[in-house]
């Protein structure tokens, strides 16, 4: 038998968890930004397989804590710089030591806006009833994993959209239009709508009206082996 959502209880818990998450998020955001940076570096690397050496794994991403603890900056080392950094030298250290090589300033993405959907997603997941706390946290972990993938997608298409608009002719017009479409799409969805979409997708059975989802047939109650032995031992 599936659980039912008590609207009043759900609303009260949602407000409580939302307030707790909101006030706890500020000190946690820089650490999560590092997680997002690492995941985005992987996503960007996977998107830059190319036979053209100008574009083959040419984007470096970093966080400059002196400018922002959460903003993700990126540099296309073959187009933004007059000379790329030596192998093994972190991009941020190279830029600080060699400001004269910069032709286009590193571009920044305000990751606090990309990550803001978690402030709503976490309370939604915690306020929804579950059979056990283990099940609740398992669903929360799944929701966070999906959110991280969408956040990486958001950052990657934002970078690709900037490249398409800044370097016309590098991407064909169709590819540029696709990147710009997805950039606008994720920006309109990421903060408010993605959390509800993830939450509803994970709890779809719980949210459907009664009768829309067939209930599993109750399992017949069978006596234990010891009970059957006692019954068979009784004189007839």
Describe, in plain words, how this protein is organized in 3D.
- The protein has 236 residues and is mainly alpha-helical.
- It has one domain (7-208).
- Helix content is 58%, strand content 5%.
- The protein has helices spanning 7-47, 91-97, 111-115, 117-127, 133-166, 173-189, 193-202, 204-207, 225-233; strands at 59-62, 72-76, 107-109.
- A three-stranded antiparallel sheet has the order 1-2-3, with helices on one face.
- α1 crosses α4 (117-127), α1 (7-47) crosses α5 and α5 packs antiparallel against α6 (173-189).
- The longest helix has 41 residues, at 7-47.
- It is elongated.
Can you summarize this structure?
The longest helix is centred in the N-terminal third of the chain and has 41 residues, at 7-47. The chain has one domain (7-208). The protein is built from nine helices and three strands.
List segments where confidence is low: pLDDT < 50 over at least 5 consecutive residues: none
Cα end-to-end separation: 39 Å
Structural class designation? mainly alpha
Domain count, please report it: 1
Major β-sheet, in short? 3 strands, antiparallel
Q: Could you give the count of β-strands?
A: 3
DSSP strand (E) fraction?
5-15%
**From the alpha-carbon coordinates, what is the Rg to the nearest angstrom?**
26 Å
What is the strand arrangement across the widest sheet? Answer: 1-2-3
Sequence of secondary-structure elements: HEEHEHHHHHHH
Shape designation: elongated
Give the overall average pLDDT: 85
Work out the helix count.
9
Helical residues, percent: 55-70%
